[in-house]
C-alpha cells in the first residue's frame, strides 16, 4: 500500500492536498510472512491550469502556472503474522523538490526531506486458492519534512495525518483480477501557515477528511509481467484558514497505468497517470513513476 504524494505541490490557501493512498498492483494480496523488502521510487509530476469550483482561474498569479515536482522515496518493509492473520508494516522516507514556473516563477523553489510515513496492514481474510483477499491498513504521516512558513510551496506540511484503508481483490477471469479500495485521511492543524495562507502572520490551517476510492483490473500476462489500470475518485478535504472557510472541496478523477516486471534482481514498476477532471486545485497533467523493490 503506497502513499501517493509526499508533498502538496499546490498553494494550500487556494486548494487542499488532493492526495490519498495509492495501491500498487496486487498490494491487496496478502504477503507470506517472514519477508523483508527495500524499495526505491522516483516520481515526476507536472501541475498546471488552476481551477476554482470547476472554472479555470486566469487572474494573477494563475494566468499560466506550471509546477514541476520530483521525489525519491525509500521504503523498508517487513511481513509477519498476528495470530493466524497475515500482516505487514513499513516506514517510508521521502526527499523531493518543488519548482514553480510560468506565472508562478516569482515564488521560490523548495528542496528537502518530506514527511515520514508509517503503515501497518492486516488481512482478516485471504485465500490463495480462490485469489480472494480482504485487507485493512492504518497509516500515520509524521511532520518530519522541511517546512518554511515564509514559502507557499514546501515539501513538508507541518501537520500530522492519519489514514484508514480497506481493500478487496478477487478474480474476474483466469488471468485478470479486480481490485477496489477506499481510504479516508484525517489532518491535524497547521498552526504556522503564513505565506501559503497569504498572510503576514501565522494562521491556523485546518482541513476536513479526504476520501479516495480506487478500482481497476490487474492482468497477469505470465509469471514475469503484469499490467494494471486504476481509476481514482477523490472527494472532501475542504480547508479553513482561521475562521474563514475556503470553499475548495476536492472532486478529482484521475487514472494510473502500471507495468510490472518480476526479475531475479527484483521487481520493477513503471507508471504513468494524470488527472481526468478536477473541481479545485492545479490540474496534474503528468505523473511518471519508476519503482524498484528487492525482497529477501
What attributes characterize this protein structure?
Lipocalin, 296 residues, twelve-stranded antiparallel β-barrel, mainly beta, 20 strands, globular, single chain
Blueprint of the fold:
Blueprint: E1 2-3, E2 21-22, E3 36-52, E4 55-56, E5 65-82, E6 85-102, E7 110-113, E8 116-127, E9 132-142, E10 161-171, E11 176-187, E12 190-193, E13 203-207, E14 210-220, E15 225-236, E16 239-241, E17 244-245, E18 250-263, E19 266-277, E20 281-295
Antiparallel strand pairs: 1-2, 3-4, 3-5, 3-20, 5-6, 6-7, 6-8, 8-9, 9-10, 10-11, 11-14, 12-13, 13-16, 14-15, 15-18, 16-17, 18-19, 19-20
Can you tell me about this structure?
The protein is mainly β. The chain has one domain: Autotransporter beta-domain (Lipocalin), CATH 2.40.128.130. It has no helices and 20 strands. A 12-stranded antiparallel beta barrel has the order 3-5-6-8-9-10-11-14-15-18-19-20. Strands 12-13-16-17 form a 4-stranded antiparallel sheet, with no helix packed on it. A two-stranded antiparallel sheet has the order 1-2. Strand 6 (85-102) and strand 7 form a beta hairpin. The two termini are 19 Å apart.
